[in-house]
Amino acid sequence: SQVLNKMGAQIDGAGSEVMTIEGVSALKPVTHEIMPDRIEAGTFLVAGALAGGTVEVAPCVPSHLGALLQKLEEEHVKLEIKENSITVKGGGSLKGVNVTTLPFPGFPTDMQAQFMVLLSLAEGMSAITETVFENRFIHVSELQRMGADIEIKGNTAIVRGVKHLSGAKVMASDLRASASLILAGLVARGPTEVTRIYHIDRGYEAIEKKLRGLGAELGRVKDS
């Protein structure tokens, strides 16, 4: 609606339950900058919280990440939030929290798998309740192969924090599962091999290159 209104459309109530559109005679050409991907930004924030050190994610729109930032702060992750960037300072002790996925502006279902990795290494017990999609816990069995203590009860995953994850050969089932398994592999003891990694390219551009830029040791290997 933002770009259409810039072009001369009359759209009110975008993002609310009721949207009103009044027809106009014509639209005009404009220049519009696409907003940063909040899920990619959130994934790198979780990566920084997991791996330690300081990671700045920019450009991003912090107001689009409000629910995630709130849960990161509840988990004792240190954040520095500016107008167009967020800096995460990882390496501290993580605290378990409860999360319920909701439509925007609630906690995004597309961050559920990545955040589960973080909770797997947090102190105490956490719960992730999925209310947006069914069958969104397919990645759990692969995280369990790496040593995560996760129990599924209906649409809720009970996560009990462990001291560490262990490298393993795991299989990605979808886009966000791919991201979660890569993040788990970054902090696991020993090597991790993620197969069917082609899913990741639907939502992340050159994720391995960006992670290597942060010091991660990973690479993509073609199937023989």
List the helices and strands and how they pair.
Layout: H1 2-6, E1 10-12, E2 20-22, H2 38-51, E3 53-57, H3 66-74, E4 78-81, E5 86-90, E6 98-100, H4 112-120, E7 125-129, H5 140-145, E8 149-153, E9 156-160, E10 169-171, H6 175-187, E11 193-195, H7 207-213
Parallel strand pairs: 6-7, 10-11
Antiparallel strand pairs: 1-2, 3-5, 4-5, 7-9, 8-9
Walk me through this protein's architecture.
This protein has helices at 2-6, 38-51, 66-74, 112-120, 140-145, 175-187, 207-213, and strands at residues 10-12, 20-22, 53-57, 78-81, 86-90, 98-100, 125-129, 149-153, 156-160, 169-171, 193-195. The strands form 4 sheets. Strands 6-7-9-8 form a 4-stranded mixed sheet. A 3-stranded antiparallel sheet has the order 3-5-4, with helices on one face. The model has no long low-confidence stretch (mean pLDDT 96). The protein is globular. It is an alpha+beta fold. It folds into 2 domains: 1-34, no CATH class; 38-213, UDP-n-acetylglucosamine1-carboxyvinyl-transferase, Chain (Alpha-beta prism).
